[in-house]
Design goal:
single chain, alpha/beta, 6-stranded mixed sheet
Length: 345
């Protein structure tokens, strides 16, 4: 076992820079009131000595931990298998890294995990939380409210109760769904089915509503609930073909669902798009460009959603730790979607 050299101290930095300990503390903790020449000397001494601020001491000064919890209300098997989560986490990570904040990933497998996450957030370990993939019966919003942790949600809130002050980032799911179905109608399709996502999530509900906005008199048998997974898309597509073998188009709740539906259509001898046109939602390139045929889909900027969630949270935290009344409170954002045409429709 090798011995490690002692960590440089504030006193060592102060001696190297020829300034007081208090001056060093103000510089490394982002305080004001230090002349620029002294700031340059302190930073040079910090670099030469390899000084790393003590986070506990820094927190006493800044009232910040420089750490943000990212809570995904899904089991790890789903999170690590679905590229949607990877894209959103990448956007969050890039924004937090740019502001020297740490990402603490928390996943929820069941009720015990919800309680654990609630205790962690209430324990003062992080400055705020980014929460997405909530389900309608999820206890997390109540736990977060009790923990009094600044939070930004991914997706339009769907829970009942007071939502004043709730900040979220979402895509125009309903408008994007309308564009998808109108595109199919424009191709001359009339028996257009919809494989919805899990309807305990607002994104799935909004996309179903967008479908119904266009297909006002649609046969109820043309709507089947899936779960945003390829396997769910396969199950739903088989059910649709058994119910309505004459269907001529499918709007899938997301790209993974569409990939499963395409496999079943191919197995059943249906040609895409000649017999059945297919449109997805997300435009996740690892999926949409590799399906057979490549998938026409609705693009939402998933990575940018993650960036915006982190940006809004950090902006709110800066406002919270500044002088009272400084800056406007962040507000929710809904990003536009666009239809991307490929070979499936």
């Amino acid at each position: 076992m090798t011995e490690t050299a002692p960590r440089p101290t504030l006193e060592a930095v102060a001696a190297r820079a020829g300034v007081s300990r208090a001056t060093v503390s103000r510089v490394v903790n982002g305080g004001d009131g230090v002349r620029e020449p002294l700031v340059a000397r302190v930073r040079k001494a910090v670099e030469e000595l390899g000084y790393v601020p003590n986070q506990a001491a820094r927190s006493l000064v800044t009232r910040r931990h420089d750490a943000v919890a990212v809570v995904v209300a899904e089991p790890e098997t789903r999170v690590f298998a679905d590229p949607f989560f990877a894209l959103q986490l990448r956007g969050i990570s890039k924004e937090l890294t740019a502001h020297d904040n740490q990402l603490v990933l928390l996943l929820t497998e069941g009720r015990d995990d919800h309680a654990r996450v609630g205790r962690y957030l209430a324990g003062g370990h992080v400055d705020g939380a980014l929460v997405f993939s909530l389900h309608l019966d999820d206890p997390l919003p109540g736990l977060i409210q009790r923990a009094a942790v600044p939070t930004v949600f991914g997706g339009r809130p769907g829970w009942s109760g007071d939502r004043r002050g709730v900040v979220y980032v979402d895509s125009d799911n309903r408008g994007g769904a309308r564009d998808a179905v109108r595109h199919l109608v424009g191709l001359g399709r009339s028996r257009i089915a919809h494989i919805a996502g899990a309807l305990d999530q607002t994104s799935a509900v909004d996309r179903l509503d967008g479908y119904r906005d266009v297909m006002v008199d649609a046969d109820p048998r043309l709507i089947v609930e899936g779960d945003f997974t390829p396997a769910g898309g396969e199950r739903a597509m088989r059910e649709l073909l058994a119910r309505c073998p004459d269907l001529d188009a499918v709007f899938a709740g997301n790209d993974l669902t569409a990939s499963g539906a395409l496999r079943v259509l191919r197995e059943s001898g249906r040609r895409v798009p000649e017999d059945v046109a297919v449109v997805g939602f997300d435009d996740m390139l690892p999926v949409a460009e590799q399906t057979d045929p490549p998938l026409t889909t609705v693009r939402q900027n998933i990575e940018e959603m993650g960036r915006l969630m982190a940006r809004l949270l950090l902006r709110g935290l800066d406002r919270h730790t500044a002088e009272p009344g400084i800056g406007a409170a962040p507000s929710s954002v809904v990003l536009p979607t666009t239809l991307v045409r490929r070979a499936s429709a």
